[in-house]
Design a protein that fits this description.
heterodimer; A: 293 residues; mainly alpha; B: 378 residues; alpha/beta; seven-stranded mixed sheet; five-stranded parallel sheet
Chain lengths: 293, 378
């Protein structure tokens, strides 16, 4: 049973991590919490649902939805953050304006799709082939989702570490004014950051929808809160921290249930977070670890 | 006969032809405007339950106009207000309806938790209310003006446990239920009580929260205890995922559940793993009551999908109110005394009355999920 539970936790953690990476990336670069991240997560799942309904193959639908989420991210920045940034509005006002955008996205989705839960009809995801490997059981869909999340996080890590864009993003995260003085195009770099962060959040949305074959207007709610816990645990702004935090959260959540504490699951989850924060007030990988990502 | 007389006669004949409702039986409320308040969560987290309720009342409004629902010639209108799954809004709406001086009864709200907030207001105002989906224990105990036409889980689950136990003779069971919602919490409590009463050993109890999507850790733990049956206390979104994920984990154990699992697309969403799951419920879409056959047909034609139990119980409430209005109840005091004297009213749920606790008096149906829908469990 333990092996199966650890695997359950690993699959769960991968999606938490993917969602939280986008969350923390924006925070690392702009010092703002983007509370519309979960709305984009949901919008991407609905976009993939619509595309799949038009007969687009799932893999392609996934990629297009992620790109659409990225574009939504850029628009989100232009609408909710850029005007405030230009006026040096601090960090609280953008937080509120991102909540506003989240509400608008939710209302638009409700207008288009209604309140009913939606399901992918192609591919028979709920009847995907089941693999029995020793003591554990999983589906090909879960394995694919896990691998997709890992590959996306590896690509992000490579982009941040080894490409000129990554260097610019890290420079802006380090010191926006100095980066601008050195010739970094600030707005372009921020737009790129939003594109990457939102497309990862969108990817997490589509993968979550695929995993449970369920798309609902409120699917972003639980992961929004857990995503916040993950980035606090990992260290605000740290991409590595978000990845590790995601897996810790997945494991703690699963093991709490495995040991018969399902009623206490969320209390344990946040309890672990508090203990870690007492031991390491800046989270596992400290503030500003993005610079060294 | 002059030309004028001929035209007048022709007009009268024409009016008789185009207005069949004027030929419907007219009662003491004929011609009176009766405005019934409805509180439903059309949007927000419970929108998926409140929307079919709203649909049912819209259909009822049409059916009153066309005479399919007989309100004794009264101009009966169900005014659906959206509570947006927001407790504060539920309370505001209940205050509005109980004090506007023109509403004789309020139907709804959608959730039991909301009922516990709003029904005390009605009780204090000596104002009649009827829950159509608030099935948690204790709802009607709030006060003597609180009725409901939905069978409580406490009326459905004991029969479900008894019938399945009689057939399968199980000795052990596991329970999985949502502990953050009055409805599913009630399910968990009653399953525990009834299973124990039947001599079944409850080997594991798992809880979850509304909107959870991953039940594999809990199901893996349940499976490690090898129960003979799994009792599910969940609403549709969670129930389908529990069943689907149990299937994925290769769990073949019998599963049983309550009203929350009575939705038309249970099988199509949960998949083949749902086959044979036993559901105790207040209503069966395939039941042959005349108004039910019509209701299912018209609802499906109007909304493009079949009604669920939320819609059926709302429509039944509309039928009950129409019958009371037909009998002359057009203000809150007349409505209260009419409710006290209800014997049996024909609805889509079958003939319905109220017991001394003001709970619906009708028998639950025990169904089994099959491909494409439900069948009676034998």
């Amino acid at each position: 049973m333990l092996a199966q539970q650890l695997l359950n936790g690993l699959f769960l953690g991968a999606v938490y991590a993917l969602f939280a990476v986008g969350y923390t990336l924006v925070f690392g670069v702009l010092d703002i919490l983007n509370l519309a991240h979960a709305a984009i997560f949901t919008a991407a799942a609905f976009a993939a649902f619509s595309l799949a309904g038009m007969g687009v193959p799932l893999v392609l639908a996934f990629l297009i939805a992620a790109v659409m989420a990225g574009i939504m991210g850029i628009l989100l920045d232009r609408v909710a953050f850029a005007p405030l940034r230009a006026r040096n509005a601090g960090t609280l006002v953008p937080l509120i304006s991102s909540i506003g955008v989240a509400i608008i996205i939710g209302a638009v989705l409700r207008g288009i799709y209604g309140v009913d839960e939606r399901h992918f009809t192609v591919g028979g995801l709920d009847t995907a082939p089941v693999i029995h490997a020793g003591p554990v059981t999983f589906t090909t869909v879960e394995l694919t989702i896990f691998l997709a999340a890992i590959v996306l996080m590896l690509v992000l890590s490579w982009v941040l570490r080894a490409t000129p864009l990554g260097r610019r993003i890290r420079a802006v995260a380090e010191d926006r004014v100095a980066a601008a003085l050195l010739g970094v195009n600030l707005e372009l770099t921020i737009a790129a950051t939003f594109f990457i962060a939102s497309s990862l959040g969108g990817a997490a949305g589509v993968l979550t929808a695929l995993r449970y074959n369920s798309i609902t207007l409120d699917m972003g709610g639980p992961i929004e809160l857990k995503g916040l816990a993950v980035i606090i645990l990992g260290g605000m702004g740290s991409v590595t921290g978000a990845v590790i935090g995601g897996f810790i959260l997945g494991a703690v959540e699963t093991l709490a249930i495995a040991y018969g504490l399902s009623e206490w699951r969320d209390a344990i989850l946040f309890g672990v977070m508090f203990v870690l924060l007492v031991l390491r007030p800046t989270g596992l990988f400290g503030k500003r670890a993005l610079r060294a990502a | 006969m002059n030309r004028f007389t001929v035209s007048a006669l022709a007009l009268v004949a024409l009016a008789a032809l185009v207005a069949p409702s004027s030929a419907a039986p007219r009662g003491p409320a004929a011609g009176k405007h009766v405005h019934v308040g409805v509180i439903a969560d059309v949007t927000g987290a419970a929108g998926v339950y409140g929307t079919p309720q709203k649909n049912a009342y819209e259909l009822a409004n049409e059916d009153v106009k066309s005479g399919k629902i007989d309100a004794g010639g009264a101009d009966l209108v169900f005014d659906v207000q959206d509570a947006a799954t927001d407790g504060a809004q539920v309370v505001n709406l209940m205050q509005k309806f109980t004090t506007d001086g023109q509403t004789p009864i309020v139907l709804g709200p959608t959730l039991s938790g909301e009922a516990f907030k709003a029904f005390p207001i009605a009780k204090n105002a000596n104002f009649p209310v009827m829950g159509t989906s608030t099935t948690a224990e204790g709802v009607t105990a709030i006060g003597p003006t609180v009725y409901r036409d939905s069978l409580a889980e406490s009326q459905v689950i004991p029969t479900t446990v008894k019938r399945t136990h009689d057939k399968w003779h199980y000795k052990t069971a596991a329970i999985i239920y949502g502990d953050d919602n009055a409805f599913t919490k009630t399910d968990g409590d009653i399953f525990a009580r009834e299973l124990k009463a039947a001599g079944v050993d409850v080997v594991d109890t798992e809880t979850f929260h509304i909107k959870d999507t991953d039940f594999q850790p809990a199901l893996t733990r349940i499976e490690s205890k090898h129960p003979d049956v799994i009792a599910i206390g969940a609403l549709f979104p969670e129930a389908t995922k529990i069943i689907q994920q149990a299937g994925k984990l290769g769990i073949k154990t019998h599963m049983i559940g309550g009203n929350g699992l009575n939705a038309p697309d249970m099988y199509s969403v949960a998949g083949p793993a749902a086959q044979g799951t036993v559901v105790g419920a207040a209503w069966y879409s395939g039941a042959k009551y005349p108004s039910n056959v019509e209701f299912v047909k018209h609802y499906t034609a109007k909304y493009g999908k079949g009604p669920d139990q939320f819609a059926a119980q709302s429509y039944a409430a509309a039928q009950i109110v129409a019958a009371l209005v037909k009998g002359g109840a057009t203000n809150k005091d007349e409505m209260l005394s009419a409710l006290k004297n209800v014997r049996s009213i024909q609805t889509v749920l079958g003939p319905i009355g109220f017991d001394s606790n003001r709970d619906a008096k009708s028998s639950p149906v025990i169904l089994s999920i099959v491909k494409g829908g439900f069948t009676y469990f034998h």
